[in-house]
């Protein structure tokens, strides 16, 4: 196998990719585009960094894919590791198409078996885990955030300037407006309180927040609560389309427990559900469940904990 190349415009994820690349037993080359600080951190982690500078925007994924394609050819790499965040996933498809490479995204674990890279991904909406590998020589693999730890400073890396051939973008980026982000990450919560549609009314949210505060927990939600009801930002979604959480304890309030949600909390050490329907699927995976109306329970729980 030829070498491995890594790229993410997000430095934390780029450092995670270095750790993943280390599993492959090949020379690792890290590409960095217009990000001096990132190039330095990757170098400090021991990588051979190829730094590209010019009028390129990370938001122009077609242009970035073109740069990566050129770099892969020039540096003689067949395997390209990208981050499976929103931008990384778009980049993966574009790059794979340009390279005529096989492509896997949302990779949750990697095992290198000789020359074969076996990748674990959720299948059937998260009800099963599939182990998949790409048969073509050229491979684009996008790894989910936090699957690997960030590479630690190790020294001995290098920074090389890499000049790409002139590339013409099909789009022009007029302005980049930073997304307003939550200051908390529910994936890091030790105690997670999940709000589902069974919470029914926003008037119940202050009680939920008070309970979360008493428990030192963070509040997440099922997908429709964020996308349809807009009670929380999409960063609070638990599950397949959101965050995979492994808290010590999860208190699940009025969530039915469809597989796309369940995949996000099945790593919880203790799972407690409150639901008015005894047969809600979430109850079958809960360590403890209470069959009750949240309109009655939430005020009482809040008072008991304050
Ligand atoms: C491709 C795909 C990806 C998806 N990804 C995700 C994802 O990442 N995360 C996610 O959450 N969903 C996801 N979904 C949607 C998922 O399938 C469910 O539709 C969603 O999880 C349902 O949310 P819910 O349980 O809050 O609502 P509902 O299904 O409406 O369930 C509400 C629950 O509350 C209970 N309830 C009602 N009233 C009360 C009350 N007064 N007191 C107590 N309990 C009450 C009900 O018994 C029920 O169990 C995805 C779907 C698809 C197709």
Explained architecture:
- With about 300 residues, the protein is of the alpha/beta class.
- It folds into 2 domains: about 5-160, 3-Layer(aba) Sandwich (Rossmann fold); about 185-305, Rossmann fold (3-Layer(aba) Sandwich).
- Helices cover about 30% and strands about 25% of the residues.
- The chain is built from 9 helices and 15 strands.
- The protein has helices at about 10-20, 35-45, 60-75, 85-100, 205-215, 225, 260, 280-285, 295-305; strands spanning about 5, 30-35, 50, 75-85, 100-105, 110-115, 115-125, 130, 140-145, 160, 190-195, 220, 250-255, 270-275, 290.
- The strands form 3 sheets. A 7-stranded parallel sheet has the order 5-9-4-1-2-3-10, sandwiched between helices. The chain has a 5-stranded parallel sheet with strand order 12-11-13-14-15.
- Helix 3 (about 60-75) crosses helix 4 (about 85-100) and helix 5 packs parallel to helix 9.
- The mean pLDDT is about 95.
- The structure holds flavin-adenine dinucleotide.
Give the ordered list of helices and strands: EHEHEHEHEEEEEEEHEHEHEHEH
Q: Provide a count of the helices.
A: 9
Number of strands: 15
- The strand line-up of the biggest sheet is 5-9-4-1-2-3-10
Spans of at least 5 consecutive residues with low confidence: none
Q: What separation lies between the terminal Cα atoms?
A: 60 Å
**What portion of residues is helical?**
25-40%
Second CATH tier, the architecture of the largest domain: 3-Layer(aba) Sandwich
Output the CATH class name of the largest domain. Alpha Beta
What would you give as the CATH superfamily of the largest domain? HUPs
Strand portion: 25-35%
The distinct bound ligands, ions and cofactors come out as:
flavin-adenine dinucleotide
CA gyration radius, whole angstroms: 22 Å
Question: Structurally, how many domains make up the residues?
Answer: 2
CATH T-level topology of the largest domain: Rossmann fold
Q: Structural class, judged by helices and strands? A: alpha/beta
Largest sheet: 7 strands, parallel
Instruction: Average the pLDDT over all residues and give the rounded result.
Output: 93
General form: elongated
């Amino acid at each position: 196998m030829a070498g491995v190349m890594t790229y993410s415009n997000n430095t934390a994820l780029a450092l995670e990719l270095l750790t993943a690349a280390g599993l492959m037993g090949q020379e690792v080359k890290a590409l960095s585009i217009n990000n001096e600080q990132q190039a330095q951190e990757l170098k400090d982690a021991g990588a051979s960094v190829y730094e590209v500078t010019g009028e390129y925007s990370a938001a122009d994924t077609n242009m970035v894919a073109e740069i990566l394609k050129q770099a892969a050819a020039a540096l003689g790499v067949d395997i390209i590791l990208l981050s499976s965040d929103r931008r990384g996933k778009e980049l993966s498809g574009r790059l794979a198409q340009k390279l005529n490479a096989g492509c896997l995204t949302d990779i949750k674990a990697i095992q290198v078996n000789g020359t074969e890279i076996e990748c674990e991904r959720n299948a059937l909406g998260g009800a099963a885990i599939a182990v998949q590998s790409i048969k073509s020589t050229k491979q684009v693999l996008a790894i989910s955030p936090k699957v690997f730890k960030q590479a630690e400073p190790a020294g001995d890396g290098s920074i090389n300037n890499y000049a790409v051939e002139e590339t013409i973008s099909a789009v022009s980026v007029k302005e980049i407006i930073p997304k307003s982000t939550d200051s908390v990450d529910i994936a890091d919560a030790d105690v997670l309180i999940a709000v589902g549609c069974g919470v029914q009314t926003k008037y119940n949210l202050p009680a939920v927040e008070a309970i979360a505060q008493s428990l030192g927990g963070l509040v997440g939600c099922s997908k429709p609560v964020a996308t349809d009801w807009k009670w929380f930002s999409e960063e609070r979604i638990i599950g397949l389309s959101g965050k995979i959480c492994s808290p010590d304890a999860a208190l699940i309030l009025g969530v039915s427990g469809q597989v796309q949600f369940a995949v996000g909390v099945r790593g919880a050490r203790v799972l407690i559900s409150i639901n008015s329907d005894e047969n809600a699927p979430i109850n079958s995976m809960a360590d403890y469940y209470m069959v009750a109306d949240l309109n009655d329970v939430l005020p009482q729980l809040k008072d008991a904990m304050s």
